[in-house]
C-alpha cells in the first residue's frame, strides 16, 4: 500500500510569438526552445523529409523525446483539425514523425540523429487486436513513424509504398533569441479548458469527478508506455480509480470527452 500519493496536473498552454514562420506550414505553437509546425500539404515519408530539407537543410522531420512533447504536438494538431485547417476530405489528418527502422528492422532511429530515448507506441489491445501491439510491421514493410492514427496520441508504424496515401508532416525550428521562452505553464485554472477534479479518497484509490456532460474515456500508462488501466467513466458521477495494481513510479493519464483531451501525471512514492 502506498503511504503517499502526489497528483501532478501538467497543463501545456499554447504560446505564440512573432517572427518565425514557414509559408508552407501552419504554426502549432512554441514549446521549450522550439517552434513547432505542420505542413499544409501531404507527402510520402521520404518526400516529406526531402521537402523540408529543400527549404531548410538544418531541419528534419520531428523527433520526439518525451510524453509531454508528443502530447503537445498531438493536441495542437487536434486544435487545427477542429478549426478546419487540415485536410480531412478523404481520410484523417495523419502526420509523419521523423522515425524509421528501414535500415534494421526493429531498430528505430530519428532522421536528425538524436538519441532514440523515448517512444509512445500504441499497445492497447482495444485498438491493436487485429495486428498486435505497435510497432507490428504489418505486411512486413511498415518502417516509418506516423502520428494521429490513434485517438490517444500514440504511434503507429506505417508503409511508404508507391500508391500509399500521403500525410502531413511535423517539424520544429529553434526559436529566435529575442523570443520569449516563458511558455511552459503548470496550471489548473485556464478558462479555455474544462478540467476534471482529481481527489485522493484513500491510500489505495482516488476519485474522479467531472462536470462534463457525456461519458469520459480514461486510460493510464506506466513510464514505459504500457496500458495499466482503461475505463469509460459515466457523466456527472463519482468514478473510482484503484491504485494497488501500480508500483512506485510515474504514470501518464489521459481523459477524453468528445474533442476535449485532458492529460495528467501521477507520481507515486512510498
Indicate the topology.
Layout: E1 4-8, E2 25-31, E3 34-39, H1 45-55, H2 67-82, E4 95-100, E5 109-110, H3 125-128, E6 144-147, E7 156-158, E8 168-174, E9 197-202, E10 205-209, E11 216-221, E12 227-233, E13 239-242, E14 249-257, E15 260-269
Parallel strand pairs: 4-8
Antiparallel strand pairs: 1-15, 2-3, 3-8, 4-5, 4-6, 6-7, 9-10, 10-13, 11-12, 11-14, 14-15
What do these coordinates show?
With about 270 residues, the chain is mainly beta. The protein folds into 2 domains: about 100 residues, Immunoglobulin-like, CATH 2.60.40.3080; about 150 residues, Mannose-Binding Protein A, subunit A (Mannose-Binding Protein A, Chain A, Roll). It is about 10% helix and about 30% strand. Strands 2, 3, 4, 5, 6, 7 and 8 form a 7-stranded mixed sheet that branches. A 5-stranded antiparallel sheet has the order 1-15-14-11-12, covered by helices on one side. A hairpin with a 2-residue loop joins strand 14 and strand 15. The longest helix is centred in the N-terminal third of the chain and has 16 residues. The radius of gyration is 19 Å and the shape is globular. The termini are close together.
Q: Can I get a quick summary?
A:
This protein has helices at residues 45-55, 67-82, 125-128, and strands at 4-8, 25-31, 34-39, 95-100, 109-110, 144-147, 156-158, 168-174, 197-202, 205-209, 216-221, 227-233, 239-242, 249-257, 260-269. It is mainly beta and 270 residues long.
What is the CATH topology descriptor of the largest domain? Answer: Mannose-Binding Protein A, Chain A
Q: Main sheet?
A: 7 strands, mixed
The computed structural class is: mainly beta
| The CATH superfamily title of the largest domain | Mannose-Binding Protein A, subunit A
Amino acid at each position: 500500500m502506498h503511504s503517499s500519493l502526489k497528483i501532478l496536473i501538467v497543463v501545456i498552454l499554447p504560446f505564440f510569438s512573432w517572427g518565425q514562420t514557414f509559408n508552407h506550414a501552419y504554426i502549432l505553437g512554441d514549446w521549450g526552445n522550439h517552434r513547432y509546425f505542420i505542413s499544409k500539404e501531404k507527402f510520402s515519408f521520404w518526400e516529406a523529409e526531402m521537402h523540408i530539407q529543400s527549404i531548410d537543410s538544418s531541419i528534419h522531420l520531428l523527433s520526439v523525446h518525451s510524453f509531454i512533447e508528443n502530447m503537445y504536438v498531438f493536441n495542437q494538431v487536434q486544435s487545427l483539425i477542429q478549426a478546419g485547417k487540415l485536410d480531412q476530405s478523404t481520410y484523417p489528418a495523419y502526420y509523419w514523425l521523423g522515425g524509421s527502422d528501414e535500415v534494421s528492422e526493429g531498430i528505430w532511429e530519428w532522421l536528425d540523429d538524436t538519441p532514440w530515448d523515448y517512444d509512445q507506441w500504441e499497445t492497447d489491445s482495444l485498438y491493436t487486436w487485429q495486428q498486435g501491439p505497435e510497432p507490428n510491421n504489418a505486411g512486413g514493410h511498415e518502417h516509418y513513424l506516423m502520428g494521429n492514427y490513434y485517438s490517444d496520441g500514440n504511434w503507429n508504424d506505417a508503409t511508404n509504398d508507391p500508391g500509399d496515401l500521403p500525410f502531413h508532416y511535423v517539424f520544429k525550428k529553434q526559436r529566435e533569441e529575442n523570443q520569449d521562452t516563458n511558455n511552459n505553464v503548470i496550471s489548473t485554472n485556464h478558462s479555455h479548458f474544462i478540467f476534471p477534479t482529481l481527489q485522493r479518497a484513500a491510500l489505495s484509490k482516488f476519485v474522479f469527478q467531472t462536470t462534463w456532460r457525456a461519458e469520459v474515456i480514461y486510460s493510464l500508462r506506466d513510464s514505459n508506455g504500457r496500458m495499466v488501466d482503461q475505463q469509460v467513466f459515466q457523466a456527472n458521477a463519482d468514478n473510482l480509480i484503484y491504485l494497488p495494481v501500480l508500483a512506485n513510479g510515474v504514470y501518464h493519464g489521459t481523459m477524453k470527452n468528445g474533442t476535449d483531451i485532458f492529460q495528467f501525471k501521477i507520481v507515486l512514492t512510498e
